[in-house]
Amino acid sequence: MKWPPKNMGGFMGRSLWDVLGAIVDRRGRKGRRFPLQAVLAIAVAAMLAGANDLRAIFRWGRRLKPEALALFGIDRAPCHATYHYVFRSLDGDALARALGGFACGRDEPGHIALDGKTLRGSRRLDAKALHVVSAFATRLSAVVGDLAVAPDENEITAALALLKDLPLEGAIITGDAIFCQREVCQTITDRQGDYLFVVKDNQPALKADIAESFGDLSPLTDRRRRRSAA
After folding, report:
1. What pLDDT is recorded for position 63?
2. What is the pLDDT of residue 13?
């Protein structure tokens, strides 16, 4: 097994500071009073310290002493509006890929669990709540990738896009029944990974074929017998 995979090589030997510095700044020139790298680094440190919203991040940063701010390359703490503007302009998928790649580092991810969740409190006005497909590496105890599901797409489409950016060689991918699709499975095996997905009534023909293949060993066979006996 070759490690790391080619698509993760860019994160080898790089610190989190370096990884954050490589994220493209999409703000206008007038809005770059504070470097994106510094704002993101403060936000990450604040969240690791327990901050869970922009106001808490701002308050954590405001308490930093001058010598601590200097470590982030700035001489004063950003205001609350700066964080708001930065995160509105930020490419969230690019940040997720950067943090996921850094989390993988030199370690094999092992088991990666795919799951889709609707983010609580993400609904704004008439817009739908944000739905995200995430990949959690159990060996690393970290999310190594997540991708927002576009309004006109579903979890399957998002999962396919997410899998293309993940190190799958030697990994075992698990997920619920929605991910049990031929294209998803083919993507995993083509990248030298394995998968274990649930098959439910959303694919009745596949479910019946599996039961027939296992014969008397299938729990579905026992259920049919009990129903016949009743």
Report:
1. 96
2. 55
- Rounded Cα distance between 129 and 191, Å, is 32
- The encoded tokens of residue 118 equal 């609707």
**Are both 124 and 184 inside the same structural domain?**
yes
Contact 215, 194 (CB under 8 A): no
Judge contact between 41 and 18, C-beta under 8 A: no
Q: Is 184 inside any structural domain?
A: yes
Give start and end residues of each alpha helix (H) in the chain: 16-21, 36-48, 54-62, 66-71, 80-89, 92-104, 155-163, 182-190, 204-214, 219-229
Q: What is the pLDDT of residue 95?
A: 86
Q: How many domains is the chain partitioned into structurally?
A: 3
Could you tell me if residue 20 is inside a domain? no
- Of the CA atoms within 13 Å of residue 228, those in its CB half-sphere come to 6
CATH number reported for the structural domain that contains residue 118 in this entry: 3.30.420.10
Q: How far apart are CA 113 and CA 228, in angstroms?
A: 37
116 and 144 belong to one structural domain: yes
In angstroms, the CA 96 to CA 163 distance is 13
Within this chain, do residues 121 and 77 fall inside the same structural domain, yes or no?
no
> By residue range, what is the domain housing residue 149?
107-198
CB neighbours (10 Å) of residue 180? Answer: 20
Q: Which residues of the chain have pLDDT under 50?
A: 1-12
Same domain, 193 and 207: no
